[in-house]
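Please fill in the sequence for the structure shown.

STRUCTURE ENCODING:
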């Protein structure tokens, strides 16, 4: 039995991609439990692995055997149509899909460092972003700087007071965390005092009269978590709903950058974030909701394409090669574009809501094709060589993803 297993492993095609997830995901798969939020993405990645001819297995922290240089990987067995575990060699390419490290951070970093030391290349140079580090480093790149709203690392209440003296609305954001967690909005009220809001399962709104009371609420919310202060952007709105945008950018099987799709996200009324929002392809949004002409849409597509190319290349210059980044941005009422944050583990929820099934599937095929590119071009991965932004813009100017098919909307435009 053991010899047979080894021979099967040796016959696996290269590269082998190891998908790093949480132990909760591994338990669900091995229990054949499919009714959880992330399973549609797992299913699409399995389909893509067959087309790309790239073997894929899933693993979590307990599955990593550093001493024997093996991994107890979870894979889909097509004969039994079930998920199973077996011993695999270390991956040629690592694809981290777990959330921000949290309490398991040291082990996550140990595994990623160990695999890198053993010549495993990473689809993404970083598995998560520190918001302050991103803003601090992008400020040093002139082409990117103009898209960054004023941002400061919070050290003491005076930092917050200074921002509130300069701006009517500020956002406090945990330096780590996704899906709208650890975002706290503060507004100065015309009659005095402050209104604050945040989203934890539901929108919470409160008011305080004095700054010292606001500081107490902020400290209760963040506890010991580090956060940044950011000037609020006067975003375009529909009635009382904020609008922001998520762009999905990926590198393909030739290492070229493409914009897979850009989704407009319409927040629930009064919510400080656009999580759980409605989503539309940006072209449809500009035409049906903002009533832009074809010429205006064309000009905005060009403007957004240039912005996205600049920010992606800037992030790569700072951190290394990325196979994919989800870039959140806003457009203010004067039409200016503002960078909000990058995401190296995009759940692609807005893409799934706004675009058709073929586009959603492509979002899982591209990383595996890029994994093959990385495997056979290791000298180009995570070493700081970057294509020039203008070259990248030229490469994908003709197919930015804006013209991909979105889902047909039955909702009335505002």
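FILLED IN BY: designer on duty
SEQUENCE:
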């Amino acid at each position: 039995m053991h010899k047979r297993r080894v021979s099967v492993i040796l016959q696996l095609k290269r590269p082998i991609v190891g998908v790093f997830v949480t132990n909760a995901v591994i338990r669900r798969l091995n229990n054949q439990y499919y009714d959880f939020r992330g399973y549609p993405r797992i299913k699409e990645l399995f389909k893509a692995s067959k087309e790309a001819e790239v073997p894929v297995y899933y693993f979590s922290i307990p599955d990593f055997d550093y001493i024997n240089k093996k991994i107890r990987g979870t894979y889909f067995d097509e004969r039994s149509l079930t998920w199973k575990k077996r011993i695999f060699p270390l991956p040629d390419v690592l694809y981290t899909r777990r959330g921000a490290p949290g309490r398991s951070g040291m082990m996550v970093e140990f595994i990623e460092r160990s695999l890198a030391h053993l010549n495993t290349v990473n689809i993404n140079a970083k598995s998560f972003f520190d918001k302050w580090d991103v803003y601090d480093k992008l400020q040093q790149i002139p082409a990117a700087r103009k898209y960054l709203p004023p941002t400061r690392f919070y050290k003491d209440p005076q930092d917050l007071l200074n921002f509130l003296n300069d701006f009517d609305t500020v956002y406090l954001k945990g330096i780590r965390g996704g899906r709208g967690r650890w975002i706290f909005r503060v507004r100065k009220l015309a009659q005095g005092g402050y209104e604050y809001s945040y989203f934890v399962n539901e929108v919470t709104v409160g008011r305080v009269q004095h700054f010292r009371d606001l500081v107490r609420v902020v400290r209760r919310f963040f506890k010991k978590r580090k956060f940044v202060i950011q000037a609020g952007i006067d975003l375009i709105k529909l009635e009382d709903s904020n609008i922001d945008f998520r762009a999905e950018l990926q590198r393909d099987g030739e290492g070229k950058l493409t914009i897979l799709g850009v989704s407009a996200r319409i927040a629930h009324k009064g919510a400080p974030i656009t999580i759980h929002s409605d989503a539309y392809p940006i072209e449809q949004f500009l035409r049906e909701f903002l009533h832009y002409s074809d010429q205006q849409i064309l000009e905005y597509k060009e403007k957004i394409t240039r912005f996205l190319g600049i920010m992606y290349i800037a992030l790569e210059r700072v951190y290394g090669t990325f196979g994919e980044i989800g870039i959140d941005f806003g457009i203010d009422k004067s039409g200016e574009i503002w960078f909000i944050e990058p995401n190296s583990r995009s759940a692609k929820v807005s893409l799934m809501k706004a675009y058709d099934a073929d586009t959603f599937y492509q979002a899982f095929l591209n990383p595996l094709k890029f994994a093959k590119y990385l495997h056979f071009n290791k000298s180009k991965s995570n070493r700081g060589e970057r294509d020039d932004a203008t070259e990248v813009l030229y490469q994908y100017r003709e197919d930015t993803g804006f013209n991909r098919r979105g889902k047909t909307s039955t909702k009335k435009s505002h």
